[in-house]
Design brief:
Layout (H helix, E strand, L loop, with lengths): L6 E5 L3 H13 L3 E5 L2 H10 L4 E5 L7 H8 L7 E5 L4 H10 L3 E4 L4 H27 L3 E4 L2 E4 L4 E3 L5 E2 L3 H12 L4 E2 L1 H8 L10 H13 L9 E4 L3 E4 L1
Parallel strand pairs: 1-2, 1-3, 3-4, 4-5
Antiparallel strand pairs: 6-7, 7-8, 8-9, 10-12, 11-12
InterPro entries: CheY-like_superfamily (IPR011006), OmpR/PhoB-type_DNA-bd (IPR001867), Sig_transdc_resp-reg_C-effctor (IPR016032), Sig_transdc_resp-reg_receiver (IPR001789), WalR-like (IPR039420), WH-like_DNA-bd_sf (IPR036388)
Protein name: Response regulator
GO cellular component, one term: cytosol
Length: 236
């Protein structure tokens, strides 16, 4: 997610700080909503959910930690806490309640932006991995076959089980979770989690060749697991 696509909600009762942070982020391409207190924060989230919240701890009315507790009952939106407190216990409590990071006051705007970027990247990666795990279950068609991911079994077009090794299943599962993405050998080695393989081990080509003989109509002209010359393979 780049800055132009990211909506940041800045919640702080200090008008000057709130506006300073908002202006700085807007200049860098973020869309910003300002909230003077927790009540406004919750209303703003209902109207237009943010991609990340910058939340002050010490605010009149509902403080930042209480606001965070309320948010976490219904949202996983990333939250960076602002705190003037040097007490480690405050930071620990916030992290345990679901804060993603902390920035101390007075705020260094460059540090804040760096932490926003890092938090957004982490959150996007977690969401992507979660979606992949949700997708990679049940049965996935592989050419003339279908792979049962839950049972770790491959079935032919006639319904009969086709014998596959543990590593062949691992490779098929990696392809299933990366449909339409080109994977090089390093990525396949890493995601298949076979520690016995050496980096750049060309035996992966042999293993994919064996898989093709089981799933492709014509293994010599593969349509399911295709070679992308000079790069790697793609499950299409």
């Amino acid at each position: 997610m780049n800055a132009a696509q990211s909506h940041i909600l800045v919640c702080d009762d200090e008008t000057h700080l709130r506006e300073m942070v908002g202006e700085y982020l807007i200049e860098r391409g973020y869309r910003v909503t300002e909230a003077p207190d927790a009540s406004y924060l919750h209303e703003a989230m209902e109207d237009d959910a943010a991609d990340l919240i910058v939340l002050d701890i010490n605010m009149p009315g509902q403080d930042g930690l209480s606001a965070l507790r309320t948010l976490r009952t219904s949202s996983t939106v990333p939250v960076i806490m602002l705190t003037a407190s040097a007490e480690v216990v405050d930071r620990v409590v916030g992290l345990e309640m679901g804060a993603d990071d902390y920035v101390g006051k007075p705020v260094d705007l460059r540090e804040l932006e760096a932490r926003i970027k890092a938090t957004l990247r982490r959150h996007a990666t977690i969401e992507e991995e979660t979606k992949r795990k949700e997708l990679v279950s049940g049965t996935v068609p592989f050419g003339v076959c279908r792979l049962d991911l839950d049972a770790a079994k491959l079935y032919g077009s006639n319904g009969n089980e086709i014998a596959i090794t543990a590593m062949e299943f691992s490779l098929l599962r990696v392809f299933a979770s990366n449909r339409g993405r080109i994977l090089n050998r390093d990525q396949l080695l890493e995601q298949a989690h076979d520690r016995g393989w050496e980096p750049f081990d060309r035996s992966i080509d042999l293993r994919i060749s064996r898989i093709r003989k089981k799933v492709e109509k014509n293994p010599k002209k593969p349509e399911c697991i295709r070679t992308v010359r000079g790069i790697g393979y793609i499950f299409d």
